[in-house]
């Protein structure tokens, strides 16, 4: 059996679901951010797989590179914000940061 | 490829690039402003709360406005970026809002109360403006994603700029988690749409969808994922969960900025996506032809459902709010619902109604948030209970807030009435009567909580009249400058309507 487009798409769908699951279920802010990285990388797998098997031009590769760069930038900003949360609350537990509620 | 072919390719590439640079002057001016603001900040580092880079940004916005006035129109950068009347209209809304927000910031006690480095604050506002400029003209899915991220990343930091205040840092954490999740979902949707159609350009997607049969379910899922990413920016239900918390926690100036500028840019890209990618374009389409939406997926119904949910939830939850910023947050969700009605119509009447509404919404919302900021400067509170007697302590603030509230409700003779009138007319003309009925009923509900603000200011706490709030002359001038468009556009709206009608068309390639 050879590895085809469907295998990659299933892999990326699983990765996407795991990422969303981590965002929803994890309490630690760092874990939530790791879930987000999974989501972004599942999109990357899709882009590359479509570019390789779909007979498409270079667009897919370029898109993946853009997503990688933006993921890095976003992680930098998100970690800075988490650091600031730690300085204010002395923990990074997302569930306990709930001063703003109706 | 032989040298001859390479030469032709090179010259066409260079020619396109040179043409594109001509179309890119306003954005270039913003980037230069961004760099200058950083430089000026470096030289004024040892003087905290220095407003120098704020003034540089204001001058930069002015220069951008001059370029925007004389901007030619066309497609640029190999068909990834459209400079058309539609995008220029939205750029004006974004630019005016950014200008006003920087002026507001000079009066904010919240921002200048501590010894704080303010250079990055102005720089990030300029960066966010740049992102929203790109978003209003983007016609390529990757550029759309890039522009949304440019504006989001600046706004994550700005929401938590007062970093020692706990609620501001909480707001920025919630904003970054919700924002990154929704943009992750959006890029996954983009990757599916790319796989389905083999193109990232909206026109390429459109051509493929018009000529081929694609899997409806996949198209529906990818479309909804992309709309989720945009819906987050315009805070439409069910992507609104961040809105109340972030609006309450962030500095008032940033709340006002998010509620006007990001929303306008989000609507610009939502309309462009639906029109350019999912509508059939016949040769000889004019501005008066109705859009023929592709039959494979019922986008009209999806947008209409989002609109009804946003209006109803926004208005009904706003009724229970006790914090004015939170109340305005739910009111902005409700307004997103009204504007989405115009999107659901899916024709150019709807688009020009949206543009009229957004231009008016800009003035009324900025006004309301300015009053909230000035009151917070004096009484250190945003609670509705503490607003008792404000009308007697400072008739200026009381009267101004009343005018903005009446305008937000949409009663004549204010500008808000004209905005609502055009949106409802567009909905009725398209025959979606049920949507118009729900919209009108929602407007009635909204009257209740807007009047509650008025009631607390004027009908209660008359005994506090002996603690007057003194306003400086500049604050009074700004209040008048914000009241004038709210009244004037309710009476002389012809100019705005003509401009919006002339700007509703988009360039396709």
Structural notes for this entry:
- The complex is a heterodimer of chains A (102) and B (509).
- With 102 residues, chain A is an all-alpha fold.
- Chain A is built from 3 helices and no strands.
- In chain A, α1 runs antiparallel to α2 (29-53) and α2 runs antiparallel to α3 (59-89).
- Chain A has a single domain (5-101), classed as Helix Hairpins.
- With 509 residues, chain B is mainly alpha-helical.
- Chain B has helices at residues 3-23, 25-43, 52-69, 85-105, 109-112, 119-137, 141-159, 166-197, 202-211, 216-233, 242-249, 252-278, 299-318, 324-345, 348-379, 390-393, 395-409, 415-429, 433-458, 473-491, 494-503, and strands at 74-76, 81-83, 279-280, 292-293.
- In chain B, β1 (74-76) and β2 form a beta hairpin.
- The two termini of chain B are 27 Å apart.
- The model of chain B has no long low-confidence stretch (mean pLDDT 90).
* Total number of beta strands of chain A: 0
Order of helices and strands of chain B: HHHEEHHHHHHHHHEEHHHHHHHHH
The number of distinct β-strands of chain B equals 4
Helix percent of chain A reads over 70%
Assign the structural class of chain B, choosing from mainly alpha, mainly beta, alpha/beta, alpha+beta, or little secondary structure.
Answer: mainly alpha
- Find the CATH topology of chain A: Helix Hairpins
Helical element count of chain B?
21
